[in-house]
Every structure is written in structure tokens, then in C-alpha cells.
Design brief:
single chain, 29% helix, EC 6.1.1.12, five-stranded mixed barrel, 26% strand, 14 helices, BirA Bifunctional Protein, domain 2, eight-stranded mixed β-sheet, 18 strands
């Protein structure tokens, strides 16, 4: 309950705990007003994921006619009796209680035409398809009232929260690294440039070099949950220009398999936590998507990059052992592993060094690297590697890849002063959620998505 001006506001999902005919006060947005007769109205209130039916009788309220004229989406306070009903209320999530209204007060009224119908956006049929998603994003504050939108927000919150909780329980230190960097010398994705007091600077695409600095400083295990930026013109349904990343870096005792096994354990824990603590949100997601529980294995299913190439060649794909896997090929590998092992999460390791950044450790005597990607339902959700810690090897890798060394002094210098063996990963949380919940669009998992076509609101 929420205490306000000495009044106890009852949450919708607590109404079923009320005894029959008990007095209650509730607040919410008006979802629907239906005229049953000249003397009776149904007012459906919505609060986040829940809806409750309120019965308004002319003989019990003083302002019956004015209630029927209240604009939809106005925020109101209702005082009345919580009454048990024998027939299930199919239009509401609270199915065995309704509220017999004594007073209905408009707390905040809608004073303009709604840019889209919340009811249509929340529907599961063709009405939802008729609501432009761009219009919803332009008016994101209203879109948050759509139950599936709120469910996605809550699930992303759960993912972030449990990554943080679990990593802290494993003695990781949470860090905050700078997002304004001097040089784009890390390589890989394109960077956003900004003016920094008359100098050119960039927005960081990851905390890679900085989290490694923490390991060099003896911190042993660190993580960060923060924004990363990539100026790539890609499919807006799969990529974001600004996204949330879990960066993990840790000392390793043996080799990169230590990190693979640990990260696999973390992901399993987070998925299990969601299943146990977010059942209501998951129920909503299942109403709108084809989401099915993800099939997982206790130990990670792992294939080599070359093995993945062989699988694809056998299926008729044209691919070389030096190539990375494209979207279609990832899907094909995911389907193959699912058929063979009945799992949706698996690991591809030992990518060729041509496909990895300069700081990735190379397996001696080969062109393979101690690197890995995790794929979930046939789509990459994270990338990682064991890092090179030998100063001369790093210099040679930088020269070989033609990386700009401006701004790299701080990074290279630390390898002259002894750096423990270490590795890590970067996990895109919005992509992780998109794959986990089987949606065809990444944008619902960003509160205010940024992509090549969107810089508003």
C-alpha cells in the first residue's frame, strides 16, 4: 500500500486479498468507459500491468453524468467497496473483484487529443498493428502505459539488477569508466566524434581498455553496467547506436575457458532468476510474442569456429575459415546446435585473429585466438576473449592491424609493469533481452532508443 495524505491507496494486485465489501481507495488511468444503461457505467482503470473494473451507479454518486465525459487516460482516484464477483471479469486482469464506486475524483485530466490509442497499442490483434511504432516512440511517456512496454522495462530492470547482484556476490567490484575518450584506437565499430573544449574526442564503444587497466591495478574482478556507443548504420531492429552493456573482466587461473564457464553460469543464474521473480511480466510477454522458455545446459555447449565453418559448408553455405559468421549463418548454427543438443545457448570459440581486436591473445603457432562468442537462439549476445599481456606481442599486433596508436600510451604502458592473465566479455543487455524473449525488434528494451533514424525524444 501507498500512504498519501493519511489515505491508504490499495494496489490493484492486492484487491483480491480484501474481504467482500471492504472499503478501498485506488488510483489509476482510465482505460475504458462503457455505458451499460442510463443509470450504470463501467469504468476500467489501469495501473501498470493490471486492470480493475469499477461500477458507477447513478443513485450512488452525485456526478454520474460528468464521469461519463472524463477523457480516457485521465488519472483518477476512486473510493468504494471491493466486491467479490461470481462471474469472471474477462476484460480485466483482476477477475474476481470489482469496485462499487462511491466517489470518483479526477486527479489529472487529459486536455489534448491522444496521439494514439493506448487500447489499440495494447491489443493483441490487428488494432495493434495499425498503431505506428514510431508514433509510440515519439510519445514514449504514453507508450510506457502499454502493458507489454512496461513488462519489457521491468524485465530489463530485472536483468540489470541480477547481473549486478550476482557479480557482487562473486567478489566483483563495480566500476565506472569514462565514456569520453581521446582516440578511436580500439578499432572495430565506428565511433561518434564530439567537440571537447575545441579538441576532437569520441564516445566510447566499450570500457575495454579501462577495465583492463583495473585488472593491471590488482583489482582481480571488475564489472560495469553502462552505456556504449556505436555509429553503425545497421538494421534498426537489431542494432542500437546507444545501448547498455555489461562489461566483465577478471583474472584467470588457467585460460579463457575459466571465463567461458563463469559467464555461462552467470547467464543461467539471471535467466533462472527472471523465471522465479518475474512471472507476471513473463506472462504478459507470452501474450504478445511467441516466447518460449529457453533450453539451457548445465555446462556450456562449445564448438570451435572452424567446426562452425564445417557445419555451414556441409549445409551448402559459401564460407571460408577466415570469415566471421553473418546473421543467416548464426541462425543456421543455432538451429543445428538446437537439433543436436537441444539447447538455445551455446559458445563459438577460437575465432581467426583477422576477426578479433589487437588485444586478443593468439594461440601460439596458429592464426586462432583465445576468443569466444555466446549465441542465444541463433544470435550473438556477447563477445569476449583472453587478453594479450605481453608488451612486444601487443606492439606487433597493433602494427599488423594498422591500429592508430594515438591515445594508446596509457594502455600499452601498463604491460611494462606486469599484468596478470585475464579475460572478459561485453554483453549487450538490449540484444540479450531481444533474443531471450524472441522479439523481432531491439528497440522496446531501450527506454529512449537511439539509432541512425532516431534522435527524439
Amino acid at each position: 500500500m501507498i500512504e498519501s495524505k493519511n489515505e491508504l491507496i490499495t494496489e490493484f494486485n492486492k484487491l483480491t486479498l480484501k474481504i467482500n465489501d471492504e472499503s478501498v481507495i485506488v488510483r489509476g488511468f482510465i482505460d475504458t468507459i462503457k455505458t451499460v444503461s442510463k443509470n450504470m457505467l463501467f469504468v476500467i482503470l489501469r495501473d501498470r500491468l493490471e486492470k480493475v473494473q469499477c461500477i458507477v451507479l447513478r443513485k450512488q454518486v452525485n456526478d454520474f453524468d460528468s464521469i461519463n465525459k472524463i477523457p480516457l487516460e485521465s488519472f483518477v482516484k476512486v473510493t468504494g467497496k471491493a466486491v467479490e464477483v461470481k462471474t469472471e471479469i474477462k476484460s480485466c486482469t483482476i477477475k474476481n473483484r470489482e469496485i462499487r464506486v462511491e466517489t470518483l475524483e479526477v486527479v489529472s485530466s487529459v486536455s489534448a487529443q491522444l496521439p494514439f490509442s493506448i487500447k489499440d497499442a495494447a491489443s493483441k490483434g490487428t488494432d495493434r498493428a495499425n498503431v505506428s511504432y514510431n508514433v509510440r516512440l515519439d510519445n514514449r511517456f504514453l507508450d510506457f502505459r502499454v502493458p507489454i512496454t512496461y513488462a519489457f522495462v521491468k524485465l530489463l530492470d530485472g536483468v540489470m539488477s541480477e547481473f549486478r547482484t550476482y557479480l557482487k556476490s562473486e567478489n566483483f567490484t563495480e566500476i565506472r569508466t569514462t565514456k569520453i575518450i581521446q582516440s578511436g584506437s580500439e578499432g572495430g565499430a565506428n565511433l561518434f566524434s564530439i567537440d571537447y573544449f575545441g579538441k576532437k574526442a569520441f564516445l566510447a564503444q566499450s570500457s575495454q581498455l579501462y577495465k583492463q587497466s583495473c585488472i593491471a591495478g590488482g583489482m582481480k574482478r571488475v564489472f560495469e553496467i553502462g552505456y556504449a556507443y556505436r555509429a553503425e548504420v545497421q538494421n534498426v531492429n537489431r542494432y542500437l547506436s546507444e545501448f547498455t552493456q555489461v562489461d566483465i573482466e577478471m583474472e584467470i587461473e588457467n585460460d579463457y575457458m575459466d571465463v567461458i564457464r563463469f559467464v555461462h553460469k552467470v547467464i543461467l543464474h539471471v535467466i533462472k532468476y527472471l523465471k522465479e521473480h518475474y512471472s507476471r511480466e513473463l506472462e504478459i510477454v507470452r501474450e504478445y510474442t511467441d516466447f518460449k522458455d529457453v533450453e539451457l545446459s548445465t555446462e556450456p555447449v562449445i564448438i570451435d569456429h572452424s567446426e562452425g565453418v564445417d557445419i555451414l559448408k556441409a549445409q551448402g553455405y559459401e564460407i571460408d575459415y577466415e570469415d566471421d559468421f553473418n546473421r543467416e549463418q548464426e541462425k543456421a548454427l543455432g538451429a543445428h546446435i538446437k537439433k543436436l543438443h537441444n539447447v538455445d545457448l551455446f559458445v563459438i570459440k577460437d575465432y581467426p585473429k583477422s576477426q578479433r581486436a589487437f588485444y586478443t591473445q593468439v594461440c601460439k603457432g596458429t592464426n586462432k585466438t583465445r576468443s569466444y562468442d555466446f549465441l542465444l537462439r541463433g544470435e550473438e549476445i556477447l563477445s569476449g576473449a583472453q587478453r594479450e599481456t605481453d608488451f612486444e606481442s601487443l606492439k606487433n599486433a597493433i602494427a599488423e592491424k594498422g591500429v592508430n596508436v594515438d591515445g594508446l600510451d596509457f594502455y600499452l604502458k601498463m604491460f611494462k609493469f606486469a599484468v596478470p592473465p585475464h579475460g572478459g566479455v561485453g554483453i549487450g543487455l538490449e540484444r540479450f533481452c531481444k533474443c531471450l524473449f524472441e522479439t523481432n525488434d531491439i528497440r522496446p528494451f531501450s527506454l529512449f532508443p537511439r539509432d541512425p533514424s532516431r534522435l527524439y525524444p
